[in-house]
Amino acid sequence: MTDIVVHPLRRPLTGGVPVPSDKSIGHRALLFGALANGVSRIRGFSRGEDNVSTARAMAAMGAEITDVSETELSVKGTGLFGLREPEGPLDCGNSGTTMRLLAGLLAAQPFKTTLIGDETLCRRPMMRVVGPLRARGAIIEGKPHPSKADNVTAPLVIGPLPEGTHLGELEYESPVASAQVKSAILLSGLYAHGVTRFREPSLSRDHTERMLLAMGAPLRTVGPVVELDPAGWKGVLEPIDVDIPGDVSAAAFLLVAAAISEGSRVTVRGVGTNPTRTGVLEILRDMGAGLEIVARGEQGGEPVAEITAWHTPLRAGRVGGEIVPRAIDEIPIVCALAARAEGETVITDAEELRVKESDRIATMAVVLRAFGVDCDERPDGLAIRGQKGALRPAEVDSKGDHRIAMTAAVLALHASGPTRIKDCDCIATSFPRFVGTLRALGAEIDVPA
Ligand code: S3P
Question: What spacing in Å lies between the alpha carbon of 343 and ligand 1's midpoint?
Fold first, then answer.
């Protein structure tokens, strides 16, 4: 397992850099493209490991996925009813999105599948998809969760749906704002006899709705309610031609790094700015960071922009309520922002962080304290007291969580000596070129052999 050593910043971070393609949109383009009638084109694809897990799973069920170039794929879909039984278990790696979306898709198939994943993924709760899918007739078994009573985790054994039977209608009110749950339910709904109605407490990322609608699926949305009614629909998804925007969740590490580092100014190009994802930009602005967002039209049905962040004195912020699902993956890097802001930043309503790739509330508290930042861990968030002087050089364990590893790397730029971050292979799940990108902006990072 690779460690990285990050050195204190000796000059401001400056420059313009690309970011990897959006992981969430990538999953959907691969998965939905594999179900289409025809050949889809996926451009700007950056081969993060999570997306590759989705590609492998769909190929194992008959989709023909071909490299056109380093960044372009073609996907010949099987049609909605053309998937074939895979020869072995489908390995979702570290990707919760792959596992949960596939659970919804496979629940409707006439063959049996097993979904497996890495150690981290096998600790994540799956009842949030298993429960509602069972309620519409799906056959799914999971392993009892080691610490959460009444919950299950991977491996998930799904189906087969007995011949001549179908999933039924479903009206589901989700207790969490979750695009993974929403997408699983909608995918199962494409095959169901009857209407699917999904409501969530506030709107989670809506890439699934946008893409399925563009492909001709019979769905409509009203605020945080999505309705899918297949009555009269021919069951055909049109292929897509999509240029995937840059991932705002990856961009956030670079924007925050610039915002907290004196004299710095960093631009990221072609970044997706879907409003269900841009909570972090609002938080940056609210805490006083210099930020310019220049809209650059649409890519693949999603708004994109060029975003520049620069350093200005930062003040503490309050992060809670509906913005949390719109910044859910960025809360770790918001903690780094808070660590360098004047005053106490309080993050609430973020209990979902406890069931991400690691318990991100607990892990971030450990990381912040390792750097000498004063903070309290709360059931649904953190209170972080910003620190003025240099941070303490630390030795940090990423816990196999890519966003923790990258947040620690950004904090380490402000330490008074080198920081070792352990277990950084996980960074490749979402941002394979993270180290090179930070170096290009002026950071000094060693990857010891
Ligand atoms: C994702 C949804 C979010 C997010 C994850 C990707 C998606 O999870 O944290 O990184 O692509 O649907 P939840 O839906 O569980 O909030």
Answer: 30
* pLDDT score at 107: 98
Q: Is the dihedral of CA 177, 281, 121, 228 positive or negative?
A: positive
In the reported structure, the alpha carbon of residue 108 is separated from the centroid of ligand 1 by a whole-number distance in angstroms of 22
The per-residue pLDDT of the chain, averaged, comes to 97
Interior/surface letters 328-337, b for 16+ CB within 10 angstroms, e for the rest: bbbbbbbbbb
Q: Please name the residues in contact with 334: beta carbons below 8 A apart, sequence gap of 6 or more.
A: 256, 280, 283, 319, 327, 345, 347
pLDDT band at 395 (very low <50, low <70, confident <90, very high): very high
With a 6 Å cutoff on the Cβ, whether 153 touches ligand 1 is no
Answer yes or no: is the C-beta of 178 below 6 A from any ligand 1 atom: yes
> In the structure encoding, which two tokens stand for residue 300, read together?
């693949």
**Closest-CA residue to 316 (of 292, 296, 340):** 340
Structure tokens at 125: 């709760």
pLDDT over 90 at 46, yes or no: no
The strand pairing partners of 397, in sequence order, are: 422
Rounded to 5 degrees, φ, ψ at 278 are: -100, 20
